């Protein structure tokens, strides 16, 4: 992916999620992109999303999950915890989550044994896991204070649920399984250099994804009309914000497998 400075209007967009907030610049100090993330980012309705995939993939033996621009792993870890809490042992069909980022520094961090978090992260994780923070992380003996970030150790079994590697989605589309796949590609589209390159990426995704696939993006992505691009290339916008489906998956979900009305979609 070619990345360079983005426009002032996009630079002024301030995401509400930033427990990890690292700015990356080139050798001349020119802004390239931000690694800005947190656990359970608020531009996805996580509980509703799990309900969707529980119904959509209930008869599927193996579901592929790819998370691009994964940063330090907060997002794939959020999804892994939610899957384990909601599916129990049946969650195995979703693992391992394949998490990728172009930034070797954040991938090195994600592959480690520790994750940086603050007290807000601790509370959010407990909220979504029903108070099971220590099922996934080892809490420091002194607890997690309010004023500072802490390095928190991941439990080894939890760490094995995610495989990390370096990859650029614009060059990696051919490695995405074309069936029964969920792709998280959230909050990086404005960093892609040109509208032409963004359009080409959506075209490539539309050609690669064949059967029962789901794409999840973020609020930041609509600053460059990514939602419109996906709809223009045959993806159907689920009634849930930032969630899109391949046409066959949309038909299956609304006309047979689920009792929602077809008018619930957003055209």
| Helix content bin | 25-40%
**N→C terminal distance:** 29 Å
Spatially, the strands of the biggest sheet line up as 8-4-3-9-10-12-11
Give the number of DSSP strands: 12
Radius of gyration: 18 Å
Q: Treating each run of at least 4 consecutive H or I residues as one helix, how many helices?
A: 11
Unreliable spans: 1-29, 31-35, 250-267
Main features:
disordered C terminus; 11 helices; three-stranded antiparallel sheet; alpha/beta; 267 residues
Any overview of this molecule?
The chain is an alpha/beta fold and 267 residues long. It has helices spanning 8-11, 46-56, 74-87, 104-110, 119-129, 133-136, 156-159, 169-172, 195-208, 226-232, 247-257, and strands at 20-25, 31-37, 64-68, 97-101, 114-117, 137-138, 150-154, 162-166, 181-185, 214-216, 236-237, 243-245. The radius of gyration is 18 Å and the shape is globular. The protein contains eleven helices and twelve strands. Helix 2 crosses helix 3 (74-87). The protein starts with 7 loop residues before the first helix and ends in a 10-residue tail after the last helix.
Summarize this entry quickly.
Helices cover 34% and strands 19% of the residues.
Summarize the SSE layout with pairings.
Elements: H1 8-11, E1 20-25, E2 31-37, H2 46-56, E3 64-68, H3 74-87, E4 97-101, H4 104-110, E5 114-117, H5 119-129, H6 133-136, E6 137-138, E7 150-154, H7 156-159, E8 162-166, H8 169-172, E9 181-185, H9 195-208, E10 214-216, H10 226-232, E11 236-237, E12 243-245, H11 247-257
Parallel strand pairs: 3-4, 3-9, 4-8, 9-10
Antiparallel strand pairs: 1-2, 5-7, 6-7, 10-12, 11-12
Helix pairs in contact: 2-3
